Amino acid sequence: MTTHEKLDVRGQLCPIPVIRTQNKVKTLASGDTLEIICTDPGALNDIPAWCEVHGHRLIDAKQAHNEIVITIEVVR
Predict the structure, then answer these.
(1) What is the mean pLDDT of the chain?
(2) 3-state secondary structure of 50
(3) What is the C-alpha end-to-end distance of the chain, expressed in Å?
């Protein structure tokens, strides 16, 4: 069963959004999705780069107003 989780790291600065994303992904199964909501503009580069290094799939990354929403799929 695929789950869709959310991780709110608004107000956290680098490297905390990546670290909390990594920790959350460890609790998820392959095929699960994670939506990361953050305010650190560096996350637009850092989280997709982390996904590429670790083999997870970037589904979407968008910025609206002062929030960034990044959605990834866990791949094992």
Answers:
(1) 97
(2) helix
(3) 15
